[in-house]
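Researcher: Please predict.
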Amino acid sequence: FGVYIEGPMLVHHITPINQSDIMYQTKKLLDPENLITVAVNTHNLIHYNKVEKEKWVERVPGDTKLW
């Protein structure tokens, strides 16, 4: 789709898997139609409704350090 992911990536199961799927190696475990690559923040948002906040550093006069 032309959307690039920067940084760490995870593979997410579109239809959730359960312990039985893992134990019996069901088709949906590795079915490419059930997998999507997402950024870590997106994965955390899907599963935990949690977004990592960006760390902003306020600049001050005379500040010579890079972010």
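Model: The two ends are 32 Å apart (CA to CA).
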